[in-house]
Amino acid sequence: MDWTLLAERLFGTEHGIARDGDFLRGEVxxxxxxxxxxxxxxxxxxxxQLALAQARAVLDVVTHHPGRxxxxxxxxxxxQLRRRDxxxxxxxxxxxxxxxxxxxxxxxxxxxxxxxxxALSGGFITSGLIADTCDxxxxxxxxxxxxxxxxxxxxxxxxxxxELSESNPVFAPGVRNYVAMGGVRKLWQGDLAQALRxxxxxxxxxxxxxxxxxxxxxxxxxxxxxxxVLDAA
Length: 233
Hints:
Elements: H1 3-11, E1 17-20, E2 23-30, E3 33-40, E4 44-46, H2 48-64, E5 70-79, H3 83-88, H4 90-106, E6 111-120, H5 121-125, E7 133-136, E8 141-143, H6 147-154, H7 158-165, H8 175-181, H9 192-202, H10 209-216, H11 222-232
Parallel strand pairs: 3-5, 4-5, 5-6, 6-7, 6-8
Antiparallel strand pairs: 1-2, 2-3
């Protein structure tokens, strides 16, 4: 979905969100409260500049508007694959973005991630997956690694991974597989404003992705392994 159509369905035509290149930022009135909106569009590759711009926007909210809820609009093809960004430390810039989002959460800001178009790789890991809750539109595309890349990393045949992906969400891309694994909490359908209202009201304060994955059958062992580690600590 185009970000302007999404913004209108959520907040009306006078939404106040502005686009600067691939960067989205604004303040909107929602149910009598001001909500900060930060995000990306046009399948943005997340380079050093864009990662730091998002991090700065998050820190501005924490500094100037304590407790204000933050909505992350996610549309990214992952990190910028460019030598300049690698030399400038794209890994540190993206880690900084993730740490800023986590810092906002720890300071009492509700952070809602919404994958409205595409979410790939590190651009997703350091944004939506660190929010209090990450939701998505049903037509969104989500994946962290393509099967050919997964085959190179795991040294397993791509044909075997393709076969495994038919029955195991861990090996398969797609928004519903991420719901099954607990990475995406809910799909927003119908009245998107009501879906946002529900997300703001029900956002968990603890990480429940492993428990959700176990309950939904997408990640059967993660929650039990985590509990065993905690019990042994």
